[in-house]
Amino acid sequence: MIRIKRVKRMAVAVKDLDAAIENWKKLFGIEPFQQGEEPEHRYAFVAFNIGNTRGDGEMTIEFLAPLDDPDGEMLIGKFIREHGEGLYMITLETEGTADEVVDQIKALGLKPAWGGQQMEWRAEHMEGLGLNRWTENYIKPKDANGVLCTLASIEYREPEMIISKSGVTIQPK
Asked: Which of 8, 35, 142, 169 has the maximum number of C-beta atoms within 10 A of its C-beta?
């Protein structure tokens, strides 16, 4: 059994990133906080915060759109070509280390997706997010009812002390 703490991210494959941004602004009155491109995998993305799950980390919804992939040969383009727009991935924060999660996946008789390749980001790439390390393992859609599951092992930074002026309460972001 893989122990889950919470949902951290939902990723939705879309054909038109700008149209998705405008639609979610109109529907929910929210603004994206991050936008970028992953040229190696040929997709562009935008992320919205949609809720503070427990006071110690935001949950995001991200839209991923093909980038220079007219024939749908790469990750997102292929997904849209085969399935249309829709839920592409759920990221679940797990308990334990990334290596423990691999052991839990194997104990279920499954093989981690992509040959057990882990993706890891360290503090220098996550400035302002309050994280020291974010490591991902993956479960294939065929093993999770059609959904790519990203299993994130997250190491949070210790909170920094804020000294308030007398009579002023500060609520950190």
From this structure: 8
